[in-house]
Amino acid sequence: MEKGSAAGGSSRPPPMPSLEDFPFEGKKPVKNPFVPIGALVTAGVLTAGLVSFRYGNSRLGQKLMRARVVAQGVTVALMVGSAYYYGDQIKLFKKGSSP
């Protein structure tokens, strides 16, 4: 085997990227409080559904799984809607601020 090969060498891991390496370094993240709330509701309904399946109440478990799908869909719709809304706001800001 050759020295420095990946199989038996003492190669170092690649360096961790710094914040300067990311393309969105100057932008503030947009915060939508409904997305984390929707994620928590989805997780809660999923947990309740799994617990009800565990205890043998399959009818309630099935209803909770359907409610989970609805909650998950609403959460994804909020994510897409807020990205679309704030994406337009960023475009308008860039157009208005350019000379």
TrEMBL record:
It comes from the Eukaryota. PANTHER family: HIG1 DOMAIN FAMILY MEMBER 1A, HYPOXIA-INDUCBILE GENE 1 HIG1 -RELATED. The keyword Chloroplast does not apply. It is found in: Mitochondrion membrane. The gene is LOC100845238. Coiled coil: none annotated. InterPro entries: Hypoxia_induced_domain, RCF1. This is HIG1 domain-containing protein. PROSITE patterns: HIG1 (PS51503). It comes from Brachypodium distachyon. Residues 1-97 form the HIG1 domain. Keywords: Membrane, Mitochondrion, Transmembrane, Transmembrane helix. Residues 1-24 are annotated as: Disordered.
